[in-house]
Write a structure and sequence with these properties.
Main location: membrane
Keywords: ATP-binding, Magnesium, Membrane, Metal-binding, Nucleotide-binding, Translocase, Transmembrane, Transmembrane helix
Number of strands: 37
Family: Belongs to the cation transport ATPase (P-type) (TC 3.A.3) family. Type IV subfamily.
Subcellular location: Membrane
Distance between the termini: 68 Å
Shape: elongated
Strand content: 15-25%
Membrane topology: Multi-pass membrane protein
Helix content: 40-55%
C-alpha cells in the first residue's frame, strides 16, 4: 500500500496566539451534507474570545488580585432575611393576587367596603400562607441537602501531609486526594491515579444521567507523581478557560517549570458531581470551586412553559375584569341618579346629609363585585395538577419492569396540554428503536459477509499447535478468504483490525474468562462485539496501546492519537503504530464523510460498496464506512507539531484542532462498510397507527441515511404500502426552491390540506428549505403531507423544525427523544417527552414527562391527556360559573337597595364561599371525572379529537357558561324574593329581615351549584358524592355553628339565632327543595335533548360502553378508576421510596 503524502508546509514558529492556526490553515466548515453541530458542540461558538483565561498556580499561594469563589454551595431559594421579599415578589407577579391585594387594601378605607374589612384579606392570607408553607418545606429540604454536601470531607495536601478538610473549605489551587466510590468536591485537573499511566474511571450519572464508566487519563508528565514528595515538588501553573457550563468541553494548558507545556482537555478534567469508580485514588488540582463548577453552572431552570388553557383563561379573566368595571360604573351612575331622584321625597333617609362622591361609590362596587374573579382558582388548579401528576407517576400501565422505570411527570403545568397535541416530532434511534445494536453484516470489496445468529468466537476455528503455527478447520467464508489469500484478504484484515482498534471501548474481563465491553455508545460496542465474532477479539487497553487477539494471536497496536467523533465531523480516527512498526490512520464514519476523503485507488470498490450500503439501508440497518491510510514518518512528525500547537491554543481550540485533523484525514483507502441492526421497540407500529387515527401527525427526525429512515417508516406503519413519496434531495437553494414550488403546483387546491402523501427530506435540503426566503413555502408543503421524515439532520435542525412548525401552525406540538441531541427540540416543543433509554437520561432530565417506551406515549396522550384536558376545562368553567351565580346576585339586589352597595349576604359567608362551601366539587371534578374508560379511549382514538380541537374550552364555551351563571343567578335571587315579598315567612306572622332572605338565597345557591357540578360530571365515584353532598352539609353545619358564636365570640352578631329562624320556616324548606330544581331543570333538559339530537362521538362511546358491561364489569372498572384506588403499596425504587404501581387507573 503506498504511503500517504500530507501537504503540511513549513512548521510555523510559536506565536502570540498560543499555537492557534492561521486563517489560511483552517479549511471552511463542511456544510455540504446540511449538518450542523450539536448543541453541546456549538456551545463553544458563543464564548467570548476576549474573556481572560484563568491561571491557577500549583503549590503556591494564589495572588490576592485574583479572587476565586469559595467551595460552599447553596441551591436553596430563600434565606431567613430574603424569604419575605422574594416570596412576596413571586406571588404578586400574578395579576390575580395583585387584584385581590388591591381589594383588601381598599376594604381598609373606613366606610368604603360593604363586605367588611377582612373578607378578602383573610382568604388571601390563607392562600398565601398555604403557598408559603409549601415553599418553606421545599426550601428546608434544599438547605439540608446543601449542608450535607458542604460538610463532606476530602483529603487535601496541607503542610506536606494529607489532611481531612470539609468540602466548603477547599480552595482553588488545592491538591486533593479522592478515594474510590467518592464524589469529586470541585472541578479538578487529574494529576495521577492508582492505576497504570494515570488512568481512572468515573461515573457521570449525576451530571448527564449516563451510568456507563468513562476513562480519564493524566498527562504523562504528571502520571508518575503518585506520592506526597513528588507532588510537593510540582511547580508550575494551569492556564484554563474561565468558568462555564459546558460539561463536555475543557480547554487548558499545563505549564511546568522548565518543561514543555502540555494541552489539557476533557480527558483530564474531573467534574464535581461525578464519582470515582474502579480506581483506588486520584490526585487532582482544584480549578473551579462552588458555584463556578460546571455542575452548578448547569443548575438552571428549564424554559417556562404554559398550557394553552392557562393562556386562554388569563385572557378571559381580563375580559371579565372589564365587565366587572362596567358593572361598577353602571351601579355608580345608577346610585347618582337614584340619590338625586329620592333626596327630596325620601327625606327620612337623610340622603342630603350623605356626601355624594362618584369615585367613592365606584370603589364600593369594585369591592362588592371583586369575587366575580375566583380567588381560589389558582390554588385549586395547582392542587389538581399536582395530584394529576401523581396519577401519571403511579399508572402501572406505563411502568416498564425490565428497567424498573415508571412514568414520571417532571412538571404538572402541562397536564391538559397532553390532550391537545397535533404534531409529534420523534427521534428514531432509541425512541422508536431499542438502541440495542447488533452487528449483522459487513461489506468488503464485492462480497458481503453475514454474521450468523449462533456464531461465536470459539466455533470459528479449532486451533492445533504444531511447530508454533496454527492449523485451522475453517467453515466460515471470511476465514477462508483471509487464510487462503483471497482477493479480499488484506481488506478483511484491515477491516477487522479497524473495528477492534478504532474505538474508545473499555474491556472488562470477568471471572469466567469472558470479556464485557463498556462503551459510550451502543454502536461502538456492537462493532467491537462483531469483530470478536469474526475472530478479532479486543483484549485490553492502556493509555498508550491496545491488544487484540487475531485468531488467537496477540497483536499490540500503539495508540498515538485519537481524533474523536463529533456530530460535526461524523467520523472517528485513530493513529496507530501496528506490530510491524508502520504508521497507519484508521478511520470510520458516515459514508458522506468518508467518500469525499478517498484516494483514487478506491474507485474500483466505491460504486459496489454504495450499492451494498443502499441495500443495508433498505433493510433498516445502520451503516458505517471504514477506511485506512499509510502515514509517512516525517510527515507525521510535522503534523504532530501542528496538532500539538492547535491542542495547546487557548483561543478557538476546537476549530484549530478540527482543522489540524482535516490535514491528516485525506487520501484514504476504502476498505469496507458495516451494518448494524437496531430493532423497533415493542408496540411501536401499533402505537403510531393509533396516533394517526387520532389525527395526530407523527414526524420522524433522524440522523440516519435516507433509505434507513424510509425503511423504518414502513416498519413502524408510518408509511403504508401504496402511499406516494415526495423525496427532497437537492444540492442547492435554487434547486430546492424549484422542486418545492413544483410540488406546490401539483397539489393545487389541496395545498395546506392534509393529503395521503409522505414527504422525505434530507439534512442538506432542509438547510436550504429553512432559509428565510423559502421557509414558508416549505412549511406549506410539509403540512400538506400526512407523514414527514427528515433524515441526516443535526440537533440544531431538529429544534428548528419543531420551532417553525409550532409557530406556523399555532397548534400544540410534542417532541420525544432519548439522547442529548434531542434536548434542543424537546425544549422547543410545547410538551417535551424524554425516553429513559440506553443513551442516558439527558433527554429525560430536560423533558416535561419521561417514559420508558414509545408505546406508553399512547396512554399518556389519549388517556391522561384527554382526561386531564376535560377535567381542567370543567374545573375552570365551573369555578367562574359558581362565582357568577352568587356574586351577580348583589347586582340584582342593588336595584332594591337604591344602588347603595348594601350587601345581601353576611360578610363571612361571602368570604368562605370559595374557600369552603364550593371548594370540593371542582377538586373532585378535576381529579376523578372521565367520559370513558382508558380502554375505550385507546380503542377509539377519535375520542381524542374534542380535546385536540379545543372544543371543550374556547371563547364561545366560556361565555356560554358565563351566561348560564347569569341566568341561574337571576332565578336564584328573584324566585326567593317573590316568595318572601310580603316579608312573612312564619306561620306566626313574623317577618324576617333582609339577612333571612340573604341566607335563603345563599342556601339555594350552594345547593344549585353543587347539583350543577353533578350534572356536568360524567363519572360519579365516592369522592364525587363526598364533594357534592358534603359541601351542602358543610353549609348547614356552618350556619348552625356560626349562629351560636355571638356573644361568646365578638363576631357574627347579625347571625345570632339565624339557624333557628331558617329551619323553623316552611318557606325556607320549600325554597331549598323547589328552587334548585327549577334552576337546574333547563340545564338538565338541554343536556338530554342535545345529547339525543346531536349526540357526540364521546356520548356514543360512553353509551356503548355502559350497554356492553354488566354490573360486575362496571364494578370491576370502578376499582380501576381514579375514584377508587386499591392495592396501593410502597416499595423502594433505586433506594428511593416511591409508590408501587400496583394500582390500575383506568
Amino acid at each position: 500500500m503506498p504511503h500517504q503524502t500530507i501537504e503540511l508546509g513549513p512548521v510555523p514558529p510559536p506565536d502570540p496566539t498560543n499555537g492557534a492556526l492561521d486563517n489560511h490553515q483552517i479549511p471552511s466548515p463542511d456544510e455540504d451534507d446540511g449538518t450542523g453541530s450539536s448543541p453541546l458542540d456549538r456551545t463553544t461558538e458563543h464564548r467570548d474570545p476576549t474573556s481572560e483565561p484563568r491561571v491557577v498556580f500549583i503549590n503556591r499561594v494564589q495572588p490576592p488580585i485574583t479572587k476565586f469563589v469559595n467551595n460552599r454551595i447553596s441551591t436553596a431559594k430563600y434565606s431567613i432575611l430574603r424569604f419575605a421579599p422574594l416570596f412576596l415578589f413571586e406571588q404578586f407577579r400574578r395579576w390575580a393576587n395583585v387584584f385581590f391585594l388591591m381589594i383588601a387594601l381598599l376594604q381598609q378605607i373606613p366606610d368604603v367596603s360593604p363586605t367588611g374589612r377582612y373578607t378578602t384579606l383573610v382568604p388571601l392570607i390563607f392562600i398565601l400562607s398555604v403557598s408559603a408553607i409549601k415553599e418553606i418545606i421545599e426550601d428546608i429540604k434544599r438547605h439540608r441537602a446543601d449542608d450535607e454536601t458542604n460538610h463532606r470531607e476530602v483529603y487535601v495536601l496541607r503542610s506536606d501531609a494529607w489532611k481531612k478538610v470539609k468540602w466548603m473549605h477547599v480552595g482553588v489551587g488545592d491538591i486533593v486526594k479522592v478515594l474510590n466510590n467518592n464524589f469529586f468536591p470541585a472541578d479538578l485537573v487529574l494529576i495521577s491515579s492508582s492505576e497504570p499511566q494515570g488512568m481512572s474511571f468515573i461515573e457521570t450519572a449525576n451530571l448527564d444521567g449516563e451510568t456507563n464508566l468513562k476513562i480519564r487519563q493524566a498527562l504523562p508528565s504528571t502520571a508518575t507523581l503518585t506520592s506526597i514528595q513528588p507532588l510537593t515538588k510540582l511547580i508550575g501553573s494551569v492556564e484554563c478557560e474561565p468558568p462555564n457550563r459546558h460539561l463536555y468541553e475543557f480547554t487548558g494548558v499545563l505549564h511546568e517549570h522548565d518543561r514543555t507545556s502540555f494541552p489539557l482537555g476533557p480527558d483530564q478534567i474531573l467534574l464535581r458531581g461525578a464519582m470515582l469508580r474502579n480506581t483506588s485514588w486520584v490526585f487532582g488540582i482544584v480549578i473551579y470551586t462552588g458555584h463556578e463548577t460546571k455542575l452548578m453552572r448547569n443548575s438552571t431552570k428549564a424554559p417556562l412553559k404554559r398550557s394553552s388553557v392557562d393562556k386562554l383563561t388569563n385572557v378571559q379573566i381580563l375580559l371579565l375584569f372589564g365587565i366587572l368595571l362596567v358593572m361598577c360604573l353602571i351601579c355608580s351612575i345608577c346610585n347618582e341618579i337614584w340619590s338625586n331622584a329620592h333626596a327630596s321625597t325620601d327625606w327620612y333617609i337623610a340622603l342630603e346629609a350623605i356626601p355624594q362622591n362618584f369615585a367613592y361609590n365606584l370603589l364600593t362596587f369594585v369591592i362588592l363585585f371583586n369575587n366575580l374573579i375566583p380567588i381560589s382558582l389558582q390554588v385549586t388548579l395547582e392542587v389538581v395538577r399536582f395530584i394529576q401528576a401523581i396519577f401519571i407517576n403511579m399508572d402501572r400501565e406505563m411502568y416498564y419492569p425490565e428497567t424498573d422505570t415508571p412514568a414520571m411527570a417532571r412538571t404538572s403545568n402541562l397536564n391538559e396540554e397532553l390532550g391537545q397535541v397535533k404534531y409529534i416530532f420523534s427521534d428514531k434511534t432509541g425512541t422508536l428503536t431499542r438502541n440495542v445494536m447488533e452487528f449483522k453484516r459487513c461489506a468488503v470489496g464485492n462480497e458481503v459477509y453475514t454474521l450468523s445468529e449462533s456464531q461465536d468466537t470459539e466455533s470459528l476455528l479449532v486451533n492445533v499447535r504444531i511447530n508454533n503455527c496454527f492449523e485451522c478447520c475453517i467453515q466460515d467464508s471470511h476465514l477462508q478468504h483471509i487464510l487462503n489469500d483471497h482477493a479480499n484478504a488484506d481488506l478483511l484484515r484491515d477491516l477487522l483490525i479497524l473495528l477492534s482498534v478504532c474505538h474508545t471501548v473499555i474491556p472488562e474481563k470477568m471471572p469466567d474468562g469472558s470479556i464485557v465491553y463498556h462503551a459510550a455508545s451502543p454502536d461502538e460496542r456492537a462493532l467491537v462485539y462483531g469483530a470478536s465474532k469474526f475472530g478479532y477479539v479486543f483484549e485490553s487497553r492502556t493509555p498508550s496501546y491496545v491488544e487484540i487477539s487475531a485468531f488467537g494471536i496477540i497483536e499490540r497496536f500503539e495508540i498515538l492519537h485519537v481524533l474523536e467523533f463529533t456530530s460535526t465531523r461524523k467520523r472517528m480516527s485513530v493513529i496507530v503504530r501496528d506490530p510491524s512498526g508502520n504508521l497507519r490512520l484508521l478511520c470510520k464514519g458516515a459514508d458522506t464523510m468518508i467518500y469525499e476523503r478517498l484516494n483514487n485507488d478506491s474507485s474500483q470498490h466505491k460504486e459496489v460498496l454504495l450499492q451494498h450500503l443502499e441495500q443495508f439501508a433498505t433493510e433498516g440497518l445502520r451503516t458505517l464506512c471504514c477506511a485506512v491510510a499509510e502515514l509517512d514518518e516525517s510527515e507525521y512528525e510535522r503534523w504532530r507539531v501542528i496538532y500539538h500547537n492547535a491542542a495547546c491554543s487557548m483561543i478557538n481550540r476546537e476549530k484549530n484542532v478540527e482543522a489540524a485533523e482535516e490535514l491528516l484525514e485525506k487520501n484514504l483507502k476504502l476498505i469496507g462498510a458495516t451494518a448494524i441492526e437496531d430493532k423497533l421497540q415493542e408496540g411501536v407500529p401499533e402505537a403510531i397507527a393509533t396516533l394517526l387515527k387520532a389525527d395526530i401527525n407523527v414526524w420522524v427526525l433522524t440522523g440516519d441515511k435516507q433509505e434507513t429512515a424510509i425503511n423504518i417508516g414502513y416498519s413502524c406503519r408510518l408509511i403504508v404500502q401504496g402511499m406516494p413519496l415526495i423525496i427532497l434531495n437537492e444540492d442547492s437553494l435554487d434547486s430546492a426552491r424549484e422542486t418545492i414550488l413544483r410540488h406546490h403546483s401539483e397539489l393545487g387546491d389541496d395545498l395546506e390540506k392534509q393529503n395521503n402523501i409522505a414527504l422525505i427530506v434530507d439534512g442538506k435540503t432542509l438547510k436550504y428549505s429553512l432559509s428565510c426566503d423559502l421557509r414558508t413555502d416549505f412549511l406549506k408543503l410539509c403540512i400538506s403531507c400526512k407523514v414527514v421524515i427528515c433524515c441526516r439532520v443535526s440537533p440544531l435542525q431538529k429544534a428548528e423544525v419543531v420551532e417553525y412548525i409550532t409557530k406556523y401552525t399555532k397548534t400544540v406540538t410534542l417532541a420525544i427523544g432519548d439522547g442529548a441531541n434531542d434536548v434542543a427540540m424537546i425544549q422547543k416543543a410545547h410538551v417535551g417527552v424524554g425516553i429513559s433509554g440506553v443513551e442516558g437520561l439527558q433527554a429525560a432530565c430536560a423533558s416535561d414527562y419521561s417514559i420508558a417506551q414509545f408505546r406508553f406515549l399512547l396512554r399518556l396522550l389519549l388517556v391522561h391527556g384527554a382526561w386531564n384536558y376535560s377535567r381542567m376545562c370543567k374545573l375552570i368553567l365551573y369555578s367562574f360559573y359558581k362565582n357568577i351565580c352568587l356574586y351577580v346576585i348583589e347586582l340584582w339586589f342593588a336595584y332594591y337597595s337604591g344602588w347603595s352597595g348594601q350587601i345581601l349576604f353576611e360578610r363571612w359567608s361571602i368570604g368562605l364561599y370559595n374557600v369552603i362551601f364550593t371548594a370540593m366539587p371542582p377538586l373532585a371534578m378535576g381529579l376523578f371525572d372521565k367520559a370513558c374508560s382508558a380502554d375505550m379511549m385507546i380503542l377509539n382514538p377519535k375520542l381524542y379529537k374534542p380535546s385536540q380541537n379545543g372544543q371543550l374550552f374556547n371563547v364561545k364555551v366560556f361565555w356560554l357558561w358565563v351566561c348560564n351563571g347569569l341566568f341561574h343567578s337571576a332565578i336564584l335571587f328573584w324566585l326567593p324574593l317573590f316568595i318572601c315579598q310580603n316579608d312573612i315567612i312564619w306561620a306566626s306572622g313574623q317577618g324576617g329581615g333582609y339577612l333571612v332572605l340573604g341566607n335563603i338565597v345563599y342556601t339555594v345557591v350552594v345547593v344549585t351549584v353543587c347539583i350543577k357540578a353533578g350534572i356536568v360530571t360524567n363519572s360519579w365515584v365516592w369522592p364525587t358524592h363526598c364533594a357534592i353532598w358534603g359541601s351542602i352539609a358543610l353549609w348547614f353545619v356552618f350556619i348552625i355553628v356560626y349562629s351560636n358564636f355571638w356573644p361568646t365570640l365578638p363576631i357574627g352578631s347579625v347571625m345570632a339565632g339565624m339557624y333557628i329562624a331558617l329551619f323553623t320556616s316552611a318557606i325556607f324548606w320549600l325554597c331549598f327543595i323547589l328552587i334548585p330544581i327549577m334552576a337546574i331543570i333547563p340545564d338538565f333538559a338541554f343536556k338530554v335533548i342535545w345529547g339525543t339530537v346531536r349526540k357526540s362521538l364521546t356520548e356514543k362511546a360512553r353509551e356503548e360502553e355502559i350497554k356492553n358491561q354488566d354490573p360486575t364489569d362496571l364494578s370491576r372498572d370502578s376499582k380501576t378508576s381514579y375514584g377508587s384506588i386499591v392495592g396501593l403499596k410502597w416499595r423502594p425504587i433505586n433506594n428511593i421510596i416511591a409508590p408501587a404501581v400496583h394500582a390500575h387507573y383506568a
